[in-house]
Amino acid sequence: MAEIRLTRVEQGQNKIRNVPIAVTPEGFWCCPSPTVFQKTLKSQNTLNKPKSSSPPPKTTVQKKQIPLTEKKPMTTPIRPAVTSDDQRTFTPKSPGISAPIVPERAPRPKVEHVPRKVAIEFGEPGTSDMKVILLGKQGFCVKLSVHKKVLLEHSSFFTGKLSEQESGLSCLEIDDCEDVEIYVETVGLMYCKEIKQRLIKQSVSRVLRILKVAELLGFNSCMQSCLEYLEAVPWVGEEEEEKVVSSVLRLQGEGIVVTPVLKRISSDVSNPPNDTISHIMKLVLKSNEEKGRREMKSIVLKLLRENNSLPSSAGSADICNETVYRSCRSCLDSLLSLFKRAAELEFTDKPMDTKEPVVKQIAFEADNLSWLLEILADRQVADEFALMWASQKEIATLHSKLPIVSRYHVSCITARLFVGIGKGELLPVKDTRQLLLQTWLQPLINDYSWLQHGCRSFDRKVVEEGIGRTILTLSLEDQQSILLAWLGSFLKAGDNCPNLQRAFQVWWRRTFIRPYADAQGNVLQSDSSMTSKQ
């Protein structure tokens, strides 16, 4: 491993910093460690700060130097250097063991004496025929000793610059260099055969910086290697993915082929996305593994909600809704078949191992319908589902013939519909609302005790508020008939029946108080009008 030596001169004292570099058959490429740049800038910023007083100079004893005869010989004669402008070479006078040196530490140098340049040499020492000076921020400068042949071979930017100037141009300045560190590294990559190997173990953000500089320099082979790296490496997190995609799309706009990278986020297959969604739903609905099905239902519901927020999804939403409704009809047909089977007289006499699969399948289909209803409610298209469920009179009739432990899951669907209507999440017409209450309110009341104890997601207060609000959307006569029927059940069952007292009070006021109040208001209004006429 060869080395870069960073020598900084501070009034009679030499400090040498070694920076490892990689050697290639063509010479070497390197970028000084970011700390080299950062420490140089940091030292400048520190010295620029005013100080009230400076500490007195101290004398220290320097550690004994390693004898030169014990140093291992270098495997290559290349000794590229990263130095300050005022570089001085410190060479021992004899190859033997040197005596300990105890110099007196010099006072801190003044700001004007601080080195503000770093020099980097590429290739064999002393063979460079051109200087490239990078002028960065805060007056920081990097001087590169390079070879015209290499620049002309790899960079269209340098080719254009050199063609504009006279052929004997030996120095080129680049002003306002935003990323000096990456600029140096990218120039170093011009001296490498296998650029992609040099990018291994680099972070995605750093490779994107290299890609940006390579684009500015017209370094096509480096850009291609960066794109190959980005195509192969994982992108961690949405933020990193967005950075990669935006950088790649910018290149695509300039006519550079970036298809392999973009294939990760886009597809050329003609298979419509809705067919894929339909397939995913079928897999989830048919899964018998409870934990996996529950988790995937949650994830799919969340992702569909994200799709709903996109304005461009309106066209595909209709097709997706049709897919959901097809699944709803399939689940309803299966549920009806299971209810018929469970309602048979001989079914109750069968052994438990025969009945248990049917009971589990009823709960399974009811859970699927609840999930599909949730999807439709999020998409604000659940009105048709309310009509479909209100029309299931055969299932509602069979409901009372089944043991409560087998049927109570079905009432969760009814409860969810009442909550949705009460919150305004779905707006079925009056006939649908009335039919829903006539068909399913009594089965819900019959299962209410089990719903409170057997359904984890059941929220009694929310459900009761939804039922009451749904009832109050009907005509006053329908409100009266439903609430009087509820009152009979409530006086018998108590807490095992929905508490609709709020809805009952609203109906009472509408029926007995409001007409009197309106009549009184009309009388007062007529009296005031007569008085004003007189």
Describe the protein's architecture and organization.
The structure is a single chain. α6 packs antiparallel against α7 (220-232), α6 packs parallel to α8 (237-253) and α18 packs parallel to α21 (476-493). The model is unreliable at 1-36, 51-104 and 109-115 (pLDDT under 50). The protein has 22 helices and 9 strands. The protein is elongated, with a radius of gyration of 41 Å. Helix content is 57%, strand content 8%. It has 534 residues and is α/β, with parallel strands linked by helices.
Beta-strand residue percentage: 5-15%
How many strands appear in the DSSP assignment? 9
Low-confidence stretches: 1-36, 51-104, 109-115
Radius of gyration, taken over Cα atoms and rounded to an integer in Å: 41 Å
Average predicted confidence as pLDDT: 77
Q: Largest beta sheet: what is the strand line-up?
A: 6-8-7-9
Largest sheet: 4 strands, mixed
Structural class: alpha/beta
How many helices does DSSP assign?
22
- Which outline best applies? elongated
Distance between the termini: 115 Å
- The helicity comes to 55-70%
How are the SSEs ordered, and which strands pair?
Layout: E1 3-9, E2 14-20, E3 22-24, E4 27-29, H1 34-48, E5 81-83, E6 117-121, E7 130-135, E8 141-146, H2 148-154, H3 156-164, E9 171-174, H4 180-189, H5 195-199, H6 204-217, H7 220-232, H8 237-253, H9 259-262, H10 273-286, H11 290-308, H12 314-342, H13 352-378, H14 383-390, H15 393-399, H16 404-407, H17 410-423, H18 430-446, H19 448-454, H20 460-471, H21 476-493, H22 501-533
Parallel strand pairs: 1-5, 6-8, 7-9
Antiparallel strand pairs: 1-2, 3-4, 7-8
